[in-house]
Design brief:
By secondary structure, this protein is mainly α. The protein is 65% helix and 4% strand. It is globular and about 110 Å long.
């Protein structure tokens, strides 16, 4: 099973890469060949995913799903686009083809000569591609070695659960598998309108290449995670001056044990939110690129207009480079919404941080209206399929209501209603009076200054000033303007002392706020002290980049400030509930995005230090020894001191033996001729090839057994899955992937004798599952005594057993027996 899983992973990785990287590059070769390798990769990923997702939407909304329509709508538009984009080369090739065939039929040339001439151009293209690729590797050899090493570790780390346990690691996967299975039946949005980008990709791989949905879902989580990590590297390549600090950022998110396990747990599973994270950082990549290119275009236009050469320059572009950047920004933003709403929220926060960093440039009409139009078009392209489905009568899916309930919880609404019009002690208190542990003065500006008679006089003056403001309409006020002017020299005398007092208050307030914020953030990281360092790093980067923006107006410092601001906003979002702010998303998901932003922050801060230290050397190749040494040293220390992050956790959803039996039955038994009696966990995996009956239904039919009780299953082959150590299936059923599945212990007669529940949403939760599995175990023993030859063990290990019976479909067995705990 381990070898099968590895082969399936390589198969899915190869096919997905071909679909979203290789195929778009071939189709748009003439447009992409002048770009750097990093941008070729991002563009191909965006175009490939956008194309596949929308092709699947089109054939389903036109109600023509099927393999033939999928091939037609996938291949024909791609071929037309290839002809259109590569028109000069295609025309030349077909002209040569016509000439060669004419010479062949006229007997002027041999077939071998013609074939060599026809293959010359494809050979040259392939040769050029390989030459440029290996030239790039040779020039960036150390980067590739370091990056491939980190990718290899991530493949091992996130693939360990899939290879060793074989099973789904999250209960959400069965729901998404059900939706994809319904797409096989011709129904999209079966449970309501929902972002279906992830499901479209899985269904495309399943239908186009004939892969099993079960196999894709088991391994696709590792595939999408590799793309997620690559996007960290590529965005940092855009932001950083150093070539090697982007690798340092990926290293921090890969090897050391820095983050809470819930911040990285979901990357090992195939889930829509993690799939959408592939397109999060390309939004920032192309938005930053738009600002850079737009500025260059404006400056170039201004210069060439003075030289009367503007039209000659513009004639070389059908579409301006900045417009192309904005187009790809719109595509990436659209893909976030097509994959998951939460990714769109984070993408909006990231774009908002960039917009603030480029203020007031972003408000310039040449920038603002272009960005606004791109945003509107991106939202429209993502919402249009869901809008069409809604107009066809499909209601929104239930999880959208849940997401809204997270943002607007009912109890908050009730509290607002109950307290409306009634004052509270917090509302009556003076704003800004926050108490601190060290007894800091209040924030009303009445702190005591130096002792002495002069200080008393100053206090009286301030009191008189307060009374004069309070009685401004009294004509005989003793404090005239002349009196105030005479008091100014006395007040200036104590100004330094007041500045010192104010600075102390500000310092204490900053320390207090930092300590409070760090205490909120501790849940996102493995160690409490790390939250203090991350917060300090964020503030340092924000202050440094903001200061440098006023000294040297370069886009580099704007980009650094945008990353620090983005991280700060994520910190506030993570602490929203503790701060009394509306919670945009739950704490677990906020933790994921905060952790995902941390490598950006760390690498950008390191790059800022690198820029300051190496500025006198003008960033020569020798200066790259600093980030190389930093990365390699930290990697060595991480390994030597065993600071490598431990393997992740697994949700106790299925036993490995159950997945083994699923594969074996699907492959070796005729379709729709068998039934499996088990829990609901395998129902969607078995649905496309066979039948499924729930344990609770099966046992419920023979409760209160009597001699007239009859239970039959109308298929030739019947399999019974029994957990000898029933899983602790429930809300907290997590365990390390290296440990045994969390279970309730071995089945027992005591559990079988207790009354079980045979229906409801929690029928397979821990206690009731233990009772049901115990009952089924003793039923199997009783039935085996009755039919010892026919009822055989099909598979067994220390925690799982599968029985099989072959029956005559015209004379079915009655599975109802008195097993001692049902009468």
């Amino acid at each position: 099973m381990e070898a099968r899983t590895i082969i399936e992973f390589l198969q899915v990785l190869t096919l997905y890469t071909v679909c979203v990287c290789v195929a778009p590059y071939v189709v748009f070769h003439d447009l992409l060949r002048e770009k750097c390798l990093a941008e070729k990769f991002i563009l191909s990923v965006l175009i490939g995913n956008f194309y596949i997702i929308n092709v699947v939407f089109i054939i389903f909304l036109l109600h023509i799903p099927g393999k033939g329509s999928l091939y037609l709508f996938t291949i024909v538009p791609a071929f037309v686009a290839w002809l259109r984009v590569n028109r000069p080369g295609v025309r030349e090739y077909f002209a040569m083809l016509y000439t060669s065939l004419s010479r062949l039929f006229l007997g002027e040339a041999h077939f071998r000569t013609i074939l060599g001439a026809l293959l010359a151009r494809p050979k040259k293209l392939l040769k050029d591609c390989f030459r440029s690729f290996f030239t790039h590797i040779r020039r960036h050899f150390l980067e590739w070695v370091m990056l491939l090493g980190l990718i290899g570790f991530n493949t091992y780390y996130y693939g360990y659960q899939t290879v060793t346990k074989y099973v789904f690691g999250a209960s959400d996967l069965t729901v998404h598998q059900s939706w994809i299975n319904n797409m096989d039946g011709g129904t999209i949005f079966c449970n309501g309108v929902y972002p279906f980008g992830f499901h479209n990709i899985i269904w495309f791989l399943h239908k186009f290449f004939g892969l099993r949905t079960l196999s894709i879902l088991r391994v696709f989580g590792v595939v999408e995670t590799l793309f997620i990590y690559m996007m960290i590297y590529l965005l940092l390549r855009k932001l950083c001056k150093s070539r090697y600090l982007p690798v340092f950022g990926v290293f921090l998110f890969t090897l050391p044990d820095l983050f809470d396990f819930q911040a990285t747990m979901r990357y090992q599973w195939s889930l829509p939110q993690e799939f959408g994270m592939i397109f999060l950082y390309p939004c920032a990549f192309y938005l930053v690129q738009f600002f850079e290119r737009k500025k260059e275009e404006i400056q170039t236009k201004k210069r060439l207009k003075q030289e009367d050469r503007l039209y000659a320059w513009m004639d070389q572009y059908h579409i301006m480079p900045s417009t192309r950047s904005l187009t790809f920004f719109a595509i990436s933003f659209s893909l976030t919404l097509a994959a998951h709403f939460y990714i769109t929220i984070i993408a909006f926060i990231l774009c908002f941080a960039i917009a603030i960093s480029y203020f007031p440039l972003v408000l310039h009409p040449k920038y603002f209206w272009s960005i606004a139009l791109a945003g509107i078009l991106s939202l429209f392209s993502a919402v249009a399929p869901m809008g069409v489905a809604f107009m066809q009568g499909v209601q929104p899916e239930g999880s959208l209501k849940w997401a809204l309930s997270v943002i607007f919880p009912e109890e908050e609404k009730e509290n607002i209603t109950d307290t409306a019009g009634t004052g509270t002690s917090e509302q009556e208190a003076a704003p800004g009076t926050v108490s601190s542990e060290d007894g800091a003065e209040d924030e009303t500006g009445t702190g005591n200054g130096p002792s002495g008679p002069e200080n008393t006089e100053t206090g009286d003056t301030s009191a008189n000033n307060g009374s004069s403001f309070g009685n401004a309409d009294v004509s005989d006020s003793p404090n005239t303007i002349w009196d105030k002017i005479k008091a100014i020299p006395g007040q200036i005398k104590y100004l330094p002392d007041k500045i010192v007092i104010l600075a102390g208050k500000v310092k204490r307030r900053i320390i207090y706020i930092n300590n409070a914020a760090a205490s909120f953030l501790k849940g996102a990281y493995s160690y409490d002290e790390l939250a203090d360092y991350i917060l300090a790093a964020t503030e340092i980067l924000a202050v440094f980049s903001l200061f440098m923006m006023f000294i040297r107006r370069k886009f580099y410092y704007r980009n650094l400030f945008s990353i620090s601001l983005y991280t700060l906003i994520l910190m506030v979002m993570y602490s929203a509930e503790l701060l009394g702010l509306p919670a945009i998303m739950d704490l677990t998901r906020s933790r994921i995005f905060l952790a995902y932003a941390t490598p950006l922050l760390s690498a950008c801060l390191a790059d800022a230090v690198y820029v300051v230290l190496c500025w006198p050397f003008r960033y020569h190749k020798t200066t790259e020894l600093v980030p190389i040494g930093l990365t390699l040293t930290l990697a060595a220390l991480t390994i030597v001191y065993d600071f490598i992050k431990p393997l992740n956790i697994l949700y106790s959803l299925q036993l490995p033996g159950e997945m083994k039996c699923n594969y074996d039955i699907i492959e070796n038994y005729p379709e729709k001729r068998w039934t499996v009696v088990t829990t609901t966990n395998s129902m969607q995996s078995l649905r496309e090839k066979g039948w499924h009956m729930e344990i609770c239904t099966f046992l419920g039919k023979m409760e209160d057994y009597n001699r007239h009780t009859t239970v039959t299953i109308p298929t030739k082959y019947v399999f019974f899955y029994i957990e000898k150590t029933p899983l602790d299936y429930g809300h907290d059923a997590y365990n390390l992937v290296t440990d045994k599945m969390a279970n309730s212990g071995y089945v027992s007669e005591t559990a079988a004798s207790e009354q079980a529940v045979f229906g409801g949403s929690e029928v397979y939760f821990t206690e009731n599952r233990y009772k049901l599995e115990s009952k089924l175990y003793y039923w199997a023993k009783a039935f085996q005594q009755k039919f010892p030859e026919e009822f055989q063990v099909y598979y067994e290990d220390e925690s799982f057993i599968c029985y099989r019976i072959i029956q005559n479909e015209y004379q079915l067995y009655n599975f109802a027996v008195d097993y001692g705990f049902n009468s």
